[in-house]
Amino acid sequence: MTLIGTAILWFGWFGFNGGSALASGLSGSVAVTNTHLAACAAGLTWAGAQFLITKQPSILGWCCGAVCGLVAITPAAGFVNLWASLIIGSLGGLFSYLFCHFKGVFFQQLADTLDVFGCHGVAAVWGGIATGAFATTDSGNLMNGLFYGDGRQFGVNVLSVVVCAAYAFFMTLLLFFLIGLIIDPKVS
């Protein structure tokens, strides 16, 4: 069931990333291809890391890795070359796996159902930063990243990741506070 769900999610992600171009053409086709390559690379990397560390790779791990690759490539899908999507996907899968593995080993008391932060949060942070590093005008867009001579764009991407993380953190605290005003925690 997990494999079927991953396949459906992966297929839908093509529309999400490719459709962000708002038209068919170079940008949309680059985004779809990068999406596919990153997910493949991340799934293989997660399974490989799982094999190296626990000696027990699984199809469930491969599916988790593929989703991490989809998340990691999303900000960069239409802005990077195909080879860069393999790096972004691979490192997204690796960083997410290492986070999830070591959280499970050393911080078992932290509740993170289905490793949502480990898969989506870690991969998204990496993807946002990697976009600023690997973006190139060769892929049909208007900006270059750090590896193509534009350190400013890299800084903008790092700042955007920090601002988004801070916004999510403080809005979550606000929502917890508001919910606490409405619902008595002693009753539930």
Written account of the structure:
The chain is mainly alpha-helical and 188 residues long. It contains six helices and no strands. The longest helix has 32 residues, at 151-182. It is globular and about 60 Å long. The model has no long low-confidence stretch (mean pLDDT 92).
Entry keywords:
globular; 6 helices; 188 residues; 0% strand; single chain; mainly alpha
TL;DR of this structure?
This protein is mainly alpha-helical and 188 residues long. It has helices at residues 2-19, 26-54, 59-73, 82-106, 116-134, 151-182.
Topology:
Layout (H helix, E strand, L loop, with lengths): L1 H18 L6 H29 L4 H15 L8 H25 L9 H19 L16 H32 L6
Helix pairs in contact: 1-2, 1-3, 2-3, 2-4, 3-4, 3-5, 4-5, 5-6
